[in-house]
Structure formats: structure tokens, C-alpha cells
Amino acid sequence: ETVRQATPDDKLVIAGTGCESTWATIDLTIQAAEAGADVALVIAPGFYDSKMSPAALVRHYNAVADASPVPVMLYNMPKYTHVDMAATTIARAAEHPNVIGIKDSSGNITKLADIVRLTGAADRGGTFQVLAGSAGFLFAALAVGAVGGVVALSNIAPHQCIDIYQLFYAGRWDDAADLQRRMVPVNTAITA
After folding, report:
1. Cα dist. 78→24, 34, 46, 96, 133 in Å?
2. CB of 151 within 8 A of CB of 190?
3. By CB neighbour count within 10 A (0-12 exposed, 13-18 middle, 19+ buried), where does 140 fall?
4. Euclidean distance between CA atoms 141 and 186, whole angstroms
5. Inter-residue contact 110 to 134 (CB < 8 Å)
6. Under a CB-based contact definition with an 8 Å cutoff, are residues 52 and 44 in contact?
7. Alpha helix (H) ranges present in the chain?
8. Adjacent-strand bridge partners of 102
9. CA atoms within 13 A on the CB side of 149
10. Euclidean distance between CA atoms 60 and 54, whole angstroms
11. pLDDT exceeds cutoff 90 at 44
12. Contact at 8 Å (CB) between 101 and 73?
């Protein structure tokens, strides 16, 4: 509620609502929506990582999306969940009309490009958005079709993150790539 009150109306509030159970995730997602969140960011459950089959993940995300009063974004963070959703699984979950995007922190650019291809993110008029989950690969993610990022580096170097984005879209790829390379060690220090 405090974040929503402090955030201008034209800016989205994205609340992380992923829990280890589907029902707890649904409950927290509803609470976040009631508190003013515009979007729920739902990390893949990972405690029982060996049971998180593609079918189980799609069922989980479909149930959350069915119950959520706000749009849902998938969140793939295999470093911490030990669940690395395949591009095909993400594409299946993205078929739900209330699933609007993904924050992918895997760092696998080949998979990121495949997510863009399989979800039609590059040609769906922005209905499904792919976001880089780390500034360490923001430029590469943009190059394969991501539309932006949710990146920890922006907490201490917001201008540089925005500059990478703006230079990329201005067609100044050499400048964007140079800034990206200079920010990699800073990003590594932040995320370590």
C-alpha cells in the first residue's frame, strides 16, 4: 500500500508473490492486488524441484493466472529455485490470457531468444513481454527481442541501465555494447 501511494499513477507496481504452494501464491497475489499492485511477479516454486515438471509448472501458473485479479508475470530464477523452466514450458504458460510476460534471470541468451520466438513476443504487439533479469546480459537480451529488464544494477547505477536501453533503441549498438561491457564487473559485484 505504501509503495502504491508513493508511486505515480502512470507507473506500474510489480509485486513478487511467488510462494512454494499454488494456494499460498494465489492468496498472496490477491493480497498484493488489493494493496494496489498492478502486476504479480511469480517465481517458480522450487522446494520440491524434482517434482516441478513442465506440466506441474504450467498447472501452477494457470491456477495463479485464473485466480489473479491482476496480470501475472512468470519469473525464472534457476540459481535460487533450482528450477530452470524450458522455453517450451514458458510458451505453454504464456498461452494463458492473464500471463503477460516473463522476467528471465537464467542468463541463457539462446533460451531467451527461443522464448521470444515461441511466445511470439516480438510480433504480438506487446501482449507478452520478455524482460532480462540481470543487467549483466541486458544488451544481449534486447538484441534477441527482450523489451527491457528488471535488474538489480539499477539500484545503484540506474542511469547506466537506462543508457544501455536507450542507446540500443537509438541504433547506437557499439556504444550500448561498450557500456554493457563496462557495467558487467559492477553488476557482478552487486549480484554476488
Report:
1. 20, 29, 9, 22, 11
2. no
3. middle
4. 18
5. no
6. yes
7. 2-6, 22-34, 54-67, 78-81, 87-94, 109-119, 138-143, 158-169, 173-191
8. 74, 130
9. 31
10. 10
11. yes
12. yes
**pLDDT digits 0-9 by tens, 144-170:** 999 999 999 999 999 999 999 999 999
pLDDT for 81: 93
- Report in angstroms the alpha-carbon separations of 26 from 63, 95, 113, 147: 8, 19, 29, 27
Angle at 149 between CA 71 and CA 117, to 5 degrees: 75
Closest CA to 78 of 63, 64, 89, 69: 89
- Alpha-carbon gap, residue 159 to 145, rounded angstroms: 22
User: Cβ-count burial of 17 within 10 angstroms (0-12 exposed, 13-18 middle, 19+ buried)?
Assistant: buried
Which residue among 11, 51, 79, 103 is the active-site one?
103
Angle (CA) 18-150-6 rounded to 5° is: 80
pTM for this predicted structure:
0.93
So what's the pLDDT on residue 122? Answer: 64
Residue 108 CA to residue 145 CA, distance in Å, equals: 13
Any catalytic annotation for residue 103?
yes
Neighbours of 170 (CB within 10 A): 11
